[in-house]
Amino acid sequence: MAGLYIHIPFCRSRCIYCGFYSTTGLELRQKYVDAVCKEIRDRSKNAGVRSIYFGGGTPSQLTIRQLQQLIEALYIYNKVEDDTEITIEVNPDDATPEYATALKQLGVNRVSMGAQTFDDHRLRFLNRRHTAEQVYEAVKTLRQAGIQNISIDLMYGFPNETLEDWDADITQALALNVEHISSYCLMYEEGTPLYQLLKQGKVSETNEELEREMYYHLIDRLEAAGYEHYEISNFARPGFRSRHNSSYWDGTPYIGFGAAAHSFDGQSCRRWNVNDIHQYIEGIENGHPCFEQEVLDKDTCYNDMVTVALRTREGISLNKLSERHRNYCMKNAQRFIDAHLLQLNNNQLALTRKGLFVSDMIMSELIWVD
User: Which domain holds residue 169?
Assistant: First the structure.
């Protein structure tokens, strides 16, 4: 069973923090959809599908007809079961009653929305198109259309944001009673407008101690509300973990269609499409798709497992490691176990609550270095 990812790079406007490949060239949508359908035809293996995920960009910038065209291609060339998780990222202001009803009719059973914050001033700072009120309306509209698996994204660590501000955002998120919440600290990625504001001294990053307080406050409030903290940044009601994102963390094969989309065969081969929509379309149309790929050696495969599996509640299964890598991992992990940053139970090496906030540092110490 594989995961299928379809990258939809179109955005009506760009958020100042986003480092994902996207374009505001909406006039290319139909040519792009036609090209992705051809790639689906050429690369699908007619195998069972665990999950389908439309990410972006803003997938809800596609028309319903264009989305239907893509879903029909996925069904023709793959074995999509009735219980396959089908997720689409939707901007709150795109979730009209007509659009929500059409999504349900097309078989979409999970919607992910970027709420980010419930403060309209901070939404304008991010250059988000929606308002806080539109998030509430979108959830209500999706429920009325029959979609019973909704995820929202939240951000914390805004310039000048206080712990009280963040607590208010969490309170409003909990009031939505959605099945899944993902939350990330605002990142200043090089090449983004937000990064330029930082370099120009127009904004400043949240200090590390406040960021830590915000993160643990999030965990405490969501766990108290019944959410399972199953991955560093992800929380779910029981039975509502993201099946697709879990593919990335548990080594399930996945195929990425579209410009900038990545694929993994579940063993040692990675592939990624060109991150240029014009080159992507031209390559597909000419029968010479533009992509790169690499075959990973065993040490790199070990490093990948460390950096993805350790993000999860279950952690790393030592039984899946070779003796060489298992010995190396435990040798480097011991001091973190002694410091109560890692815990070992039933051959599973996992982060403790204390270790969550410094996970990047711990991972860097466990990866294989020649």
Answer: 2-249
Residues 6+ apart with CB under 8 A from 328: 368
Domain count, the chain: 2
Burial of 207 (0-12, 13-18, 19+ CB in 10 A): exposed
- Identity of the residue numbered 67: L
- Whether the model pTM is above 0.90: yes
Residue 208 CA from chain centroid, whole number:
24
Cα(295)–Cα(301) distance, rounded to whole angstroms?
Answer: 10
Count CB atoms within 10 A of the CB of residue 1: 14
148 within domain boundaries: yes
Low-confidence ranges of the chain (pLDDT < 50): none
Domain end residue (candidates: 205, 222, 249): 249
Residue pLDDT, tens place only, 53-98: 999 989 999 999 999 999 999 999 999 999 999 999 999 999 999 9
What is the Cα–Cα distance from 80 to 49, expressed in whole angstroms?
5
Residues 257, 6 contacting (CB under 8 angstroms): yes
Residue that is written with structure tokens 């993160």 in the block: 215
